[in-house]
Amino acid sequence: MKKTLRLALMALATSAFCITVIPTAISADSVDSAVKSMRGIDTQAADIAPEEKTQLGKKPGSQKTVSRSFEQQPPVIPHATENFDEITLEENQCLSCHDVGQYKKKNAPKIGDSHFRNQQTGEVMKQMSSARHNCVQCHVPQVDAPPLVENTFQTVKATKKK
User: Fold this and answer.
1) The whole model's pTM is what?
2) Domain of 105: which CATH number?
3) Which is more confidently placed, 21 or 50?
4) HEC sequence for 55-69
5) Fewer CB under 10 Å: which end of the chain, C or N?
6) Are 90 and 82 in contact (CB under 8 A)?
């Protein structure tokens, strides 16, 4: 018992020493203070937010729609949304033009049929699924922005054989 207690106290004293003395012994002078990531980016430099891109479309219905790059891709929003109200549980301004009862009057695309399916069961519902209420979760405004990284991506249409 005395031996176990003595070993436990010795281990405790050693760990206390390591916690307090060793970190102060390794000073910033002895270690390169500019920590860099594996990609060579200075990790201590502040991140700079990219410039905000201007939305290409202005008035709804005035902009040509952008073709999709692949099947099931959510279409981009071809009009400005900067002055739209924020989508909340009570209000979604997108529905004032794109909802089933409104799209013909407003000459706007109708909400896709997939928005009226229960995500778990696949059953068709009379009302839009609450999982699809936040439109900008999938649909983004159209902007003129270069690709973030170089790539050789081709649209489905370009790769389909005739």
Assistant:
1) 0.59
2) 1.10.1130.10
3) 50
4) ECCCCCCCCCCCCCC
5) C
6) no
